[in-house]
Specification:
The chain is an alpha+beta fold and 376 residues long. It has nine helices and twelve strands. A hairpin with a 7-residue loop joins strand 6 and strand 7.
Length: 376
């Protein structure tokens, strides 16, 4: 078979709407390590955010690559199913899953095709904290590696896979799906921390012991205080209930028992609604029971399907380029077509309906038990 070469003709001689001379301090900078660390911290601190990103990775589905050359189809399928990914992964599907997670979390993802001996041997998901992305021109993205305080440009940019999620006009790097959530998440975590502190103060009951000494003068105030302290310590330290023995006018009152913990349901739900709206998943997929029925409507299915199709459009060129590179190096016709599995929400709907029916059955049983107790 003939060896196919990629057309390297430039897309345009010049971009008329881009400035030709931009001073370095006026260039827009990509998101730095601090911003990426913030987004990763959000995933660790707010479980619903991490669950949503992981759910999107699973819902994106699997793909197959159809080769125009029948002779190369079997070799391509074998390669995509068993290619090494990083240090411990296997298969192009694993590479695309990690690539998508990085794309959603950081807004930009960089991968590399590792070539050795004239053949494509492995795929690698690069850590953005080790890279520096620059824009030499309006239609270019340059990747350099940070090494010992200096930048080393990647010598083979044609082996790099760079994708951006919702890039702003004129910028090559993308926008994280978590943008806008740090403030909302901070408020949510503040509520959770306050709830924990209130339960420490009010849930773990503390007592105030007050003694009004008499005028008999038989015991000094210090002796009486020491006696009460020993008796109170003994009564509260034993695992079994015990009696507190004291002499004189002694009163015991629970500290904080008269206070009431603020209801957090409404503010927590408001914050979670903002997070769910940004992530683009139906609430019940994240374990939130907000509606009277846990069945996803056809409108929600259409919206979620469109979200997944948008992510697939970003990943399709990456998969196609990997397959084309492999076929070129093996001497086959590099024309390919990426075919994704149909997006179906049936499994998720069934799981949600099962959870809803279980909750309804439990609610009916509790109601019948209460009616039976009142009837007796």
């Amino acid at each position: 078979m003939g060896f196919w070469k990629r057309d390297k003709t430039p897309a345009a001689a010049a971009v008329q709407s881009a400035p030709r001379a931009v001073r370095p301090w006026e260039q827009a900078l990509p998101p730095g390590p601090a911003q990426r660390a913030l987004y990763r911290s959000l995933r660790r601190s707010v479980p619903i955010i991490d669950a949503a990103v992981s759910k999107l990775r699973r819902l994106i589905g699997e793909f197959t690559v159809v080769c125009a050359d029948p002779a190369g189809q079997e070799a391509l399928d074998r390669f995509l199913g068993s290619v090494q990914v990083g240090a411990a992964g296997r298969g192009a599907q694993e590479f695309i899953g990690s690539f998508l997670e990085e794309l959603l979390t950081c807004g930009t993802a960089v991968g590399e095709m590792v070539v050795a001996g004239g053949r494509l041997r492995a795929l690698y998901n690069a850590d953005l904290d080790d890279l520096e992305l620059t824009s030499p021109g309006p239609l270019e993205v340059a990747v350099a590696v940070r090494e010992g305080g200096r930048l080393r440009p990647c010598p083979y940019p044609e082996l790099l896979l760079v994708s951006a999620l919702n890039p702003r006009a004129g910028q090559p790097w993308g926008t994280s799906i978590l943008e806008g959530l740090p403030f909302v998440s901070e408020v949510l975590l503040k509520i959770y921390r306050t709830v924990g502190a209130n339960w420490d103060r009010l849930g773990n009951v503390r007592f105030a012991v007050t003694c009004k000494p008499g005028e008999d003068g038989e015991f000094s105030a210090a002796e009486r205080a020491g006696q009460m302290a020993r008796e109170w310590r003994r009564a509260m330290s034993d695992s079994a209930p015990g009696d507190f023995v004291a002499v004189g006018d002694v009163s015991i009152r629970a500290i904080g028992a008269d206070n009431q913990i603020l209801d957090s349901d409404v503010p927590v739900r408001q914050m979670l609604e903002q997070i769910v709206a940004k992530l683009g998943l139906p609430p019940f997929l994240l374990g939130l029971s907000w509606s009277s029925t846990e069945r996803m409507s056809s409108q929600q299915a259409d919206v979620l399907t469109s979200e997944l199709e948008a992510y697939r459009r970003l990943l399709t060129p990456v998969v196609a380029r990997i397959a084309e590179t492999y076929l070129q190096l093996e001497g086959f016709d590099p024309r390919v077509e990426v075919v994704w599995d149909d997006v179906t929400m049936q499994d998720e709907v069934d799981h949600a309906n099962a959870r809803y029916l279980t909750a309804r059955a439990r609610q009916v049983e509790e109601k019948l038990e209460k009616e039976a107790k009142h009837g007796q």
